[in-house]
Design goal:
The protein has about 280 residues and is of the alpha/beta class. The chain contains eight helices and eight strands, in the order H-E-H-E-E-E-E-H-E-H-E-H-H-H-E-H.
């Protein structure tokens, strides 16, 4: 008999829960093989409101074992809340940090004269944007400007580019937004920088996930979203990850953590592959 497919598959199409402890141990013990850098740099980019800052907070929450708020977020405004180029380090203890960082950038917006300029994102990829630079949608950063790094080191450059989109956005991404994302992706490809996408707010997109976060990779709907982003953005499906960011939780939750750690482990692996090519 026909009919709609069941909302949940019997088996997950990607295993995260079973490997949570193993993946977390990898993340906490990771060290770059390339000794020219102290930190592997991951740049987050994507449309306004996709959850870049929330992902930074979620990573901090996982590493600390409790919900944490490092990056400021705003769920009300349709404009980017992040205005500056800001890099987040994560503390192991008072005297040491984990050897990877997440760099946050102003969000992409549909209009050509709002949001971060695609050219500014490309400059960030090459390490030309200094920490704390305030993005101006009306004026792209150029050599000689305050905030332009003329001599970036390997440490300044981006080692992995991560697009952030929310689960219900595939049908809402305009042609202009898709073009901006593809332009950024092409620039990263030309530089040999590996790329991933994380799909956030999965609990809002799928009722079955809201009931039980561990079912993320059993959801037929979310599997279709991954396939759709694969076709729309041109990324392989094994470079697209689903997760729920910490939002209302007041305690650590292993079911939430598992998908975050799965994605983070892959980020470190892909970024390390890039750094090894630069040795």
């Amino acid at each position: 008999m026909g009919g709609a497919p069941p909302p949940l598959l019997e088996q997950p199409w990607r295993k995260v829960s079973e490997k949570y402890r193993e993946n977390l141990e990898f993340v906490k013990s990771y060290q770059p093989e390339n000794k020219q850098v102290k930190h592997l740099r991951i740049l987050l980019y994507g449309p306004v409101g996709a959850g870049k800052s929330s992902f930074i907070n979620s990573v901090d929450s996982v590493l600390k074992g409790r919900p944490a708020v490092r990056a400021q977020t705003n769920a009300i405004s349709e404009k980017s809340f992040t205005r500056q180029y800001k890099t987040f380090k994560f503390h192991k203890n008072p005297g040491a940090t984990y050897p990877f960082v997440l760099s946050d950038i102003m969000g992409l917006e549909e209009d050509f004269d709002s949001g971060v300029s695609v050219k500014d994102v490309k400059l960030a990829l090459r390490g030309h944007v200094t920490e704390g630079y305030k993005f101006d949608p009306d004026q792209e950063l150029k050599e000689g400007d305050y905030g332009y790094n003329s001599h970036p080191t390997l440490e300044d450059k981006v080692h992995l580019l991560v697009g952030v989109v929310h689960a219900d956005s595939m049908s809402m991404l305009s042609a202009e937004m898709v073009k901006k994302i593809r332009d950024v992706r092409l620039a990263a490809s030309e530089l040999g920088i590996p790329q991933m996408v994380i799909i956030t707010r999965v609990d809002e997109a799928c009722p079955e996930i809201k009931k039980d976060t561990s079912n993320i990779y059993k959801s037929n709907y979310l599997k279709e979203q991954v396939e759709g982003f694969h076709l729309q953005l041109g990324l392989p499906e094994n470079c697209i990850f689903l997760l729920k960011n910490y939002s209302h939780e007041t305690e650590s939750n292993d079911k939430v953590n598992a998908a975050i750690v799965c994605a983070l482990k892959q980020m470190l692996l892909y970024g390390d592959d890039y750094l090894n090519l630069e040795t």
